[in-house]
Amino acid sequence: MVEWWQRMPQRISPVIFSIGSFDVRYYALMYIVAFLLVYWLASWRLRREPRFKISSGQLQEIMIAMMLGLLIGARLGYVLFYNLSYYIQHPLEIVLPFTFQGGIQFIGFAGMSYHGGVIGIVTAVIIVLRRRQLDFFLVGDFIVPCIPLAYTFGRLGNFINGELYGRETDMAIGMYFPNAPGAALRHPSQLYEGLFEGLVLFCILWPLRNRLGVKGASVSLYLAGYGMVRFLIEYVREPDANLGLIFLGLSMGQLLSLAMIVAAAVLYAFLLRRERAGG
Questions:
Q1: How far apart are CA 168 and CA 180, in angstroms?
Q2: Which residues make beta-bridge pairs with 105?
Q3: What's this model's pTM, rounded to 2 decimal places?
Q4: CB neighbours of residue 226 within 10 Å
Q5: Domain count, the chain
């Protein structure tokens, strides 16, 4: 049983099927499942919680904005936070899924940043809500509790892709990842993240979705919860090879997660003060 577990990544193909040279991958499927799940949960809330004055058409517009904001923000976040020096020299690879080194080769978009994705989503949603004259924090309370489960599927996609693997370990829970350097057991950090960033955070936010009292508190709780979970799991996740550990033994993901936690605290203080002032 232990052997089966440890060798699992070596037996999983990231490709569902191929059409010529084009591969349909589980990673893309997981993104689709994640967005459909968020949409289904949000639609469920619309039908059962009348305090949210959002139409189904507005919900669809918000979801499209979130999808575009995620893709653009995650890509640009990776470029800026994780590999800026490379993309300064290869700017076309920021927006084109090809490498031009040694001829033209299709490589897909290798590199997406969660923290950049958050910035992209928030920016895109703010633009839509201003046009529709909807309150950002009210919509945040509505949509945020629906989001964490999506990350469970996103991290499963990372796991099947054999990427974002953990650091070396001698624990039985470790796995052999074919894309990792060397032949050592490594923490399946993608599964840790899928469990805690996804399922556990959902189990906290969903029951509290109508009980926090302060408008916008769900947004603050989500930022703090994700930031703390991600910060801790980064201790067993392999840092990006081109960056390593940056400051005080912390990775870029940990520094960005600390920024999320600080932002969550500042945001909640602002929301609480506004609530007490009758805003």
A1: 10
A2: 99
A3: 0.88
A4: 25
A5: 1
Which secondary structure element, helix H or strand E, spans residue 130, and what is its range?
A: helix 114-132
Give tens-digit pLDDT for 27-70: 888 989 999 999 999 999 999 988 888 999 999 999 999 999 99
Tokens representing 251?
Answer: 């990775």
CA 111 → CA 15, 32, 207, 246, distances in Å? 18, 18, 34, 19
Cβ atoms of 161 and 109 closer than 8 Å: no
What is the C-alpha to C-alpha distance for residues 18 and 22, in angstroms, rounded to an integer?
A: 6
Residue 119: inside a domain, yes or no?
no
Residue range(s) defining the domain that contains residue 217: 2-54+134-276
Q: 3-state DSSP call for residue 24?
A: strand
Within-domain flag for 268: yes
Q: Which amino acid is at 167?
A: R
The tokens for 152 are 């469970």
122 inside domain: no
Does residue 111 sit within a domain?
no
